[in-house]
Design a protein that fits this description.
Elements lengths: L2 H4 L2 H12 L1 H5 L20 E10 L4 E2 L13 E11 L3 E3 L2 E8 L5 E8 L5 E6 L3 E5 L2 E3 L5 E11 L17 H13 L8 H12 L2 H16 L4 H9 L1
Antiparallel strand pairs: 1-10, 2-9, 3-7, 3-10, 4-9, 5-6, 5-8
């Protein structure tokens, strides 16, 4: 999030809410030796935010389907739900969480737990191991009601720690910018003077500051022992 994003009151409130829910996410970490160890929720974690309003009129009801969030490729490892507003005219709508257990003989069976939901409720669960759904949500006779839920989807970073990624490794922006300018100038349009081309390249690549950053990154990579990280940096630089 950039400075403009952080200056928005809604993003500040979302950040405060996610920080307040951090102890719930920490309790989801399985013990050492488990198949899927969660990555801790930190300032660099990738989190998707979704807000949804349920509006139910008299005689209507909403029943959720049991599911997991996202697809396997989305790698949503944990889910946090917060209900800031639930009107008193609503009935039901509890969160049902189901986990598939394995018995001593290898048989599998579901175990479900229902969590009551009211204004101010916060819930976090393991998206890999648990399925969830909303029980029947309805309005009182002759009434209508609204409910707001804010969801945080914590993504799993597939890159092992220490392996360079696009956020940390300098890429050849200068070469790509020159190639782009030359390709554009190769079209049937009037050619630009050489000094104008250089100014365009300078603008696209960030100028001397980027060139110095790329030089220092390259020099640091070559000063390290030949490891997977060093080879990756050299291949990209």
């Amino acid at each position: 999030m950039g400075p403009r994003t952080l200056s928005s009151p809604i993003y500040r409130r979302l950040g405060e809410l996610l920080t307040a829910m951090q102890p719930l996410f920490q309790r989801l970490n399985p013990q050492a030796g488990a198949q899927r160890l969660h990555q801790p929720l930190t300032a660099r974690s990738k989190v998707l935010v979704k807000a949804q309003i349920y509006e139910v009129r008299s005689g209507e009801e909403i029943l959720g389907e049991i599911h997991q969030e996202g697809t396997p490729s989305d790698q949503i490892q944990m889910v946090g739900l917060f209900y800031p507003a639930v009107e008193d005219t609503l009935e039901g709508g509890d969160l049902e969480i189901t986990v598939v257990m394995t018995g001593g003989c290898g048989s599998q069976y579901p175990v479900s737990r229902t969590i009551p939901v009211q204004a101010g409720t916060a819930i976090a669960f393991d998206n890999h191991a648990a399925y969830h759904r909303m029980s029947t949500l309805r309005a009182s006779p002759g009434q209508r009601g609204r409910r707001l839920v804010v969801a945080f989807f914590v993504l799993q970073d597939l890159a092992p720690p220490g392996v360079p990624c696009t956020d940390t490794v300098c890429v050849n922006y200068a070469d790509k910018a020159r190639s782009l300018v030359r390709r554009m100038l190769g079209q049937p349009t009037p050619k630009l003077p050489k000094h104008i081309q250089l100014r365009i390249e300078h603008f696209l690549t960030g100028g001397d500051g980027y060139a110095l950053q790329r030089f220092n990154a390259c020099r640091r990579a070559r000063a390290h022992p030949v490891t997977q990280e060093g080879l990756a940096i050299r291949a990209m630089d």
